[in-house]
Automatic annotation (TrEMBL):
Keywords: ATP-binding, Cell membrane, Membrane, Nucleotide-binding, Transport. It comes from Thauera sinica. Belongs to the ABC transporter superfamily. The lineage of its organism: Bacteria, Pseudomonadati, Pseudomonadota, Betaproteobacteria, Rhodocyclales. One of its GO terms (molecular function) is ATP binding. This is ABC transporter ATP-binding protein.
Length: 277
């Protein structure tokens, strides 16, 4: 099961992405560079439209870079002209529901590893049950997604992603729109899964509190064209607990992140005004 998870080093080197839409060029990323260590939990924050999803999609292999390269465990996975190969080594969890509605939780979980021949049915089921128990869902395997809350579905999706033992788990605002209690329980489920599987995680969010609570490093992106403006080391101990949210250190980190993002949001606003002028 852990054939990928012991690795997961990502190098983003001078990445650039320019979209051409209706004859107009949009430079989403420019000279964006960062190294992410194996097992590291990084959160990416930044103003709306700064290129966060573009970067995540480039790592996932959904869209090509226009410049630079992305290297995963010494293999170039994205560069201009390179044939992209998205696969189970890089799994994305989105905000919207992605479970098969016509299949039970058990079928949703064990299908891919069995079809790929990586795990037998018994192995997949044992691993699925172990991970479900870790996120407080020991008794849901016979349910259909329609019978579960969004928070439960998102936890099952994270378990499904990790059953594929990805080198990197990519999450694009997966908890957006959840109520505070559900969000908090889902944070702790993700932390538990990260602690027990040890894989690399890249998590996009607008919620700076969430970013600091979960991550080892918070990467703040500039306004478009996006690049990494600042990497904030989150030196809070693990395991994380909700009571840390009110600690002096947490509040200091939050202040640093808010200021960094605010600066970029203002810059985006000003450049938007100039574009309109
Ligand atoms: N397929 C596309 N074609 C043209 N422009 C695009 C395309 N996808 C994204 N863009 C533009 O690229 C820029 C970056 O978009 P992206 O979705 O990566 O930003 P983001 O930081 O994830 O935004 P948000 O926080 O609002 O989700 C935006 O200006 C967006 O309009």
């Amino acid at each position: 099961m852990t054939q990928h998870a012991s690795s997961g080093t990502v190098s983003i080197r001078n990445a650039g992405k320019t979209y051409v839409s209706r004859g107009r060029q949009v430079v989403a990323l420019d000279d964006c560079s960062i190294d992410i260590q194996a097992g590291e939990f990084c959160a990416i924050v930044g103003p709306s439209g700064c290129g966060k999803s573009t970067l995540l999609n480039a790592i996932a292999g959904f869209d090509s870079l226009s410049a630079g390269e992305i290297v995963l465990d010494e293999r170039v996975i994205n560069a201009p002209g390179l044939r992209l190969r998205p696969g189970p080594d890089r799994i994305v969890v989105f905000q919207h529901d992605a479970l098969f509605p016509w299949a039970t939780v058990r079928e949703n979980l064990i299908r891919a590893p069995m079809l790929q021949g990586r795990l037998s049915e018994a192995e997949a089921l044992a691993r699925a049950r172990e991970l479900l128990a870790r996120v407080g869902l020991a008794d849901v395997e016979g349910l259909y997604p329609g019978a579960m809350s969004s928070g439960m579905c998102r936890r099952v999706e994270m378990v499904r992603a990790l059953l594929n033992a990805p080198r990197i788990l990519l999450l694009d605002e997966p908890f957006r729109g959840m109520d505070a209690l559900t969000k908090s329980a889902t944070h702790d489920a993700l932390l538990e899964l990260h602690a027990s599987t040890g894989g690399t995680v890249l998590f996009i969010t607008h919620d700076l509190e969430e970013a600091i609570y979960l991550a080892d490093r918070v990467l703040v992106m500039t306004s478009r064209p996006g690049r990494i403006k600042r990497a904030i080391e989150v030196d809070l101990p693990r395991p994380r607990h909700r009571r840390m949210l009110t600690s002096g250190r947490f509040l200091a980190l939050h202040h640093i992140a808010v200021e960094a993002v605010r600066e970029e949001a203002v810059r985006a606003f000003v450049s938007g005004e100039r574009e309109l002028a």
